[in-house]
Write a structure and sequence with these properties.
Distance between the termini: 89 Å
Structural class: mainly beta
Strand content: over 45%
Shape: globular
Helix content: under 10%
Radius of gyration: 25 Å
Number of helices: 1
Order of helices and strands: HEEEEEEEEEEEEEEEE
């Protein structure tokens, strides 16, 4: 029996410790139920910024500047958590996309070199709302764009972020899957194209579907207008009922 005393004493100490932990959990001011729940419009894969694999950076002072065709606009609601950030520079420029959710914690999302730039910003990493800006070069100097806020909200969106089509002479079209809305409640005016060459005319024809989505026929009026080396542009859908926009990147290459 004497050999059991140390074991019983240890068990008693453990029980006392567990009791104190339980008491602390009852008395401490914890989070109320649902405090950490994602908002109704949050992406399904919502993750806290602390889980980012991006590099946290301290920003040096740079003069303000704005690159051309920067999209999305400040305050825009986008229907996909993976949103294209698009811009152009007048010369080959080394650019950096930065984003944050908290007031002073910036993340380096990625870099781009060239004159036409596009990087994907995942709003799931920023609790559905992110503030972003760009560092870019112009005339041998570096500038930083003004911060812009973009928010995820449910609405019509393209299923894919990027597609590539082979083109031939004449008019032609291809189906694109649209999610989050019945394409039948959209019109041709709900779709606009951006950054295609002037020689390429893009159109979109929504087909009847369901409230969950359907098909949009996207096409070009004349395949001979596609440059020999191909081209890349964007098709945008504006869901007026949800007040959201979404863009898909479309690459066209002659056969």
């Amino acid at each position: 029996m004497g050999k059991l005393k140390p074991i019983l004493a240890a068990l008693g100490t453990c029980a006392l410790a567990l009791g104190l932990i339980a008491l602390w959990g009852v008395l401490s001011p914890g989070r109320s139920p649902g405090e950490n729940a994602a908002p109704a419009n949050a992406p399904d894969s919502n993750r806290a910024p602390s889980g980012l694999a991006y590099e946290i950076v301290t920003l040096e002072e740079l003069p303000p500047g704005e690159p051309a065709y920067l999209w999305p606009r400040n305050g825009q609601r986008v229907a996909s958590p993976d949103v294209w950030v698009i811009w152009e520079t007048f010369e080959v420029s080394r650019c950096r996309l930065l984003a944050r959710h908290d007031a002073n914690l910036w993340y380096d999302i990625g870099s781009s070199v060239g004159t036409r730039h596009a990087l994907v910003l995942n709003l799931s990493d920023f609790r559905s709302t992110a503030v972003f800006c760009l560092d870019f070069e112009q005339d041998g100097k570096r500038y930083r764009s003004a911060p812009r806020t973009v928010t995820f909200a449910r609405g019509a969106r393209f299923e894919q972020r990027r597609v590539e089509f082979s083109t031939a002479p004449g008019q032609q079209s291809w189906p694109l899957n649209l999610l989050g809305a019945d394409p039948a409640r959209l019109t041709g005016d709900s779709f606009v194209n951006a950054l295609f060459p002037d020689s390429v005319t893009v159109f979109a024809l929504p087909r009847p579907g369901t409230a969950q989505g359907g098909v949009v026929e996207v096409g070009i009026t004349e395949g001979q207008g596609v440059p020999a080396g191909g081209c890349t542009g964007y098709l945008e859908v504006h869901d007026t009922a949800a007040d959201t926009v979404d863009r898909i990147q479309i690459a066209l290459k002659p056969r």
